[in-house]
Amino acid sequence: MAKGMLSNFSQLVLCLFSFLTLSHQTPAGGLPYTVGNVTLPNGIQMFYREAGPTNGTTLLLLHGFPSSSHQFRNFIPILAARGYHVVAPDYPGFGFTVVPESLNYTYSFAALTQSVAAFLDAKDITAFVPYMHDYGGPIGFRLALQRPQSILAFISQNANAYIEGFGATFWPPIFSLWNATTPAQFQAAAAPINDTALTLAGIKSQYTTGSARPERLEPESYWLDYALIDEQAGNRDVQIALLTDYRSNVPLYPAFQAYFRRAQPKLLAAWGKNDIIFVPPGAEAFKRDILNAEVVLIDAGHFLLETNLGQMAGLVLDFLKKSL
Ligand SMILES: *[C@@H]1O[C@H](CO)[C@@H](O)[C@H](O)[C@H]1NC(C)=O
Ligand SMILES: *[C@@H]1O[C@H](CO)[C@@H](O)[C@H](O)[C@H]1NC(C)=O
Ligand SMILES: *[C@@H]1O[C@H](CO)[C@@H](O)[C@H](O)[C@H]1NC(C)=O
Ligand SMILES: *[C@@H]1O[C@H](CO)[C@@H](O)[C@H](O)[C@H]1NC(C)=O
Ligand SMILES: *[C@@H]1O[C@H](CO)[C@@H](O)[C@H](O)[C@H]1NC(C)=O
């Protein structure tokens, strides 16, 4: 371990803790979690990572664009060591989930939510805490509208439910996709996204932009995201379809917010405050509808588990302990 890495005591504790976790609870495979897939009724083979006692409270980790359950690789063992049952699926179009060509799957947030719901049913998970990052936000909140009785609490990490959460500089190229009404306009809007956001440089910038600790980023995180987009025929189109369909979440915001006011769920919004994609006013907005919402802004960017794992684990474990 490099000198200077342990900048404070809590990090040291976490480091020791992770070491103990790894040395005592590593399954035979060598990973601090299991990997596998379930075949959904429609034939999708949904890949997921899972750890912790199955009788513990379930945390459903919902990843962001352009990543997968891989973004939770270091977080999962920490939660599992505290007795939580953790599951992290890869959505269709991401990570190692396999979608049969014959299915002609429509890549939309409604469909991704339906696939996550089918995954929960296959795993017989009826109560859970969604931990939502980025794309995980609309998926978790849609699930909550569909099965409110299953929701134990929410954790939002730059996972948005308010108009004011959209970053002013990041979204205009995507708004152009939303506004396109002809195939020519759509192509004209898609090309620059294909040439920027979906390149290695664009994906890397999702990790580095706003990060106070870019030196902590493991290059394999963005390289894996990039490889999975670049190496799989048609995946760029999938990503553009989902960036386009993100539009479909906005008309649901009033329903999400009415549900928050009605149900008053426990909610922790711990957001990277330098994220340019989903910005702090979106985190603060939860307080308008959920009286006891806890909002914490962290000196980090979009992928804060990569750079602020110990801090985030501390916040999440404290929140869960007092909320459940
Ligand atoms: C899914 O799991 C089965 C074993 O249950 C395995 O044979 C198969 O290779 C896995 N598929 C993927 C895509 O990981
Ligand atoms: C889960 O099961 C284990 C082993 O049977 C038991 O020791 C533990 O207390 C259980 N935990 C909960 C939260 O029920
Ligand atoms: C696949 O779905 C698209 C859009 O839903 C539709 O236009 C197309 O005809 C479908 N293709 C097949 C082979 O079913
Ligand atoms: C998209 O359309 C909206 C509403 O018509 C407009 O306010 C906005 O400026 C447009 N944005 C882009 C990037 O085309
Ligand atoms: C996106 O970029 C790739 C690689 O540069 C290219 O092969 C593909 O045709 C582009 N797709 C669109 C829709 O522009």
UniProtKB/TrEMBL annotation:
UniProt domain AB hydrolase-1: residue ranges: 58-308
GO molecular function: epoxide hydrolase activity
Gene3D superfamilies, alphabetized: alpha/beta hydrolase
InterPro entries referenced in this protein's UniProt entry, alphabetically: AB_hydrolase_1, AB_hydrolase_fold, Epox_hydrolase-like, Haloalkane_dehalogenase
Region forming the signal peptide: 1-30
The entry's keywords: Hydrolase, Signal
Top-level taxon of the source organism: Eukaryota
Name this protein carries in UniProt: AB hydrolase-1 domain-containing protein
Organism placement in taxonomy: Eukaryota, Fungi, Dikarya, Ascomycota, Pezizomycotina
